[in-house]
Amino acid sequence: MGIAVFCGQQRRVEDSWCHPGRTEEQQSVGHTDGPPRNWKGIGIAMVVILAVMSLVILSVILLTPDETHLLLRSHLTMEDLESEDFKVHDPSVAWLNGKGPRCHPESATFLSLIMASCCLCGLLCQVYVFEGDIYYRPSVSSRPLRLTATEPEENVVNGLSDWTYEEEILLAYPAHWWSLDGARLAYLSINNSATPVMEIPHFLGGLYPSNVLFPYPKAGSSIPSASLFVVNLYGPAHTLEMIPPDSLRARDSYISMVTWISSTRLAVRWLNRAQNQSVVCVCEATTGACSEVSGHQLFHISNLNRRGCSIHWDVTVLCPECVDVLLFPSVDLDGVFQRQCISCNLIDGCRFFRAVFSPNQTHFTLYCLGPGIPKVTVHSTKDPSRYVLLEDNSPLSKALEDKRLPETLFRTLPADNHGETNKLYIQTYFVDGIPGGQSVTEEFALDWPQVLSSMHSVALAWVDGRSGVGRGQKTAAVDPRKIGSLRVKDYLGVVELLMQLPYIDDRRMALYGKAFGGYLTLKMLAATDKLFQCTAAVAPITDFRLYSAAFSERYLGLPAKEEHAYSTASVLEEVNKLKDENFLILHGTADGEVHFQHSAELLSRLVKVEANYSLQLYPDEGHVLREPRSVQHFQRTVVNYLQTCLKHSALLDLEEDDEEEDD
């Protein structure tokens, strides 16, 4: 039998059970068997111990870096991105004269059919383009003078770029250029009468879909023909065509550069259709005669990379009228180039810039694009250290003070030391790789990838392969026919190196790419066997026969002569390798750059092989989503897809590990 005895001080009878050797009298007077305790000594010892511990804690506090502000910071969320406080403000600065900028564009677009520009900064004359024709107005109160006359059925546009010239050749919408004195106007006349027409369906807003038609030459089809004209606006308008060089006069060609080098002379560059031969001419605006420029005359421009920027840098933007001011204060073709970097060390936290000079090159607007918060300043060319601040995005700076943002590291791989951390990061690779493009820059970015990294411990990687720009002539020449294979090889080589880092979880890796980047992500999936747990491909190019002639033929040649190159580059030929991969395709049905036809052809073949894929369409949205709701939905869809996929991969890995332990 067990007896439970509770000892306390309330009942004397129970206390006798606890101490049977004591008499009631002894218990009542607090008798003890041992010697009396030294309470004073105990107290002193406790005080000494507390003092020593206080000194240790104080030392730790003083010597440990203060990281409490990091612990108090919150993660960047999708709701933050949708707030106005987290958006970069662009003041839209444009130079109207040599004295100061105005914070609104110098040219404007109305009803998507009109574009106006001033003839000379400070004067009130202007030209504008309406429905494919150019109109000139000498003053605000005068009636416009029509400079060109074309009929809509002719499919000719004057002074503006069509799709091909805007996206692939000039990379700008305006296709007209004022002379230095404002007396003459040079403009392109682009004829698309023989160019095939692309139809883009629009499904919303009516009982039946409507179609938007525009000229779009695909690989191997007829391309637009462009002619260069100059009209003299002093006195009766007089127009002359600039005669192209004999070698290209009867052949398909592009005009890729027009710039005035004096009030009556222009520098013009023609390209053959394959874009592997160019002819630079100086044209006389008064006669229309054009003469080819010799190699000696091109010495100054051709040596910018080799002598001006060394073999480690590239000239990415060339401003003909200000190059001597920006790069070379004094240039001696027979001597040494005296270089001067105007933008270096001007603004704290800025190492990625874009500059726009005033018409007389006495001032310039400097756009600090990163790595810190973007800023816009105006500087004097003579004393760049003095400037006027136009925009510092202080609301954005304040909003980001309490946010935990990912740290950006730049690596040139392979590297010997990568650093160590106890945290295991998921890896997401952002694939771009556009030939001649640069993904790895110090430009400030705040978008859904930063949210993915901040909230879900995802390491983000952007990679420039061997064909990227920004490294000067040390970059090896790449065979243009291997448009995809070499880039896929470069990316997979980097992935293999990053997988060796101790803080990268090589069991949870993902890919993301858009357009050409989407094409590369699918090619990387086809080249590996479940190396990547999930992939998001946005508006992917799947077959270069379906893509722009200017782009496809630049790298692969004409399909009739390079059928093997086109077949090798196509994703459609490798759908069997995508059958068991996990990937998401996103596409706007009204995409005018990478038509939905690319995804439709891919989906048709994926269905035939019973492939596993997910699809998200955006009705009547183009290559760049316009509707705010569509943008928000796209961002959340990609983040949720990658997060869910990678988390699911982690759970599967845990189950497999448990099964191995049971075995």
TrEMBL record:
Residues 449-648 form the Peptidase S9 prolyl oligopeptidase catalytic domain. Signal peptide: none annotated. Residues 127-292 form the Dipeptidylpeptidase IV N-terminal domain. The chain crosses the membrane at residues 42-63, 108-130. It holds the Pfam family DPPIV_N. GO terms for biological process: proteolysis; regulation of potassium ion transmembrane transport. InterPro entries: AB_hydrolase_fold, Peptidase_S9_cat, Peptidase_S9B_N, Serine_Prot_S9B/DPPIV. GO terms for molecular function: serine-type peptidase activity. Keywords: Membrane, Transmembrane, Transmembrane helix. GO terms for cellular component: voltage-gated potassium channel complex. It comes from the Eukaryota. This is Dipeptidyl-peptidase 6b. It comes from Salarias fasciatus.
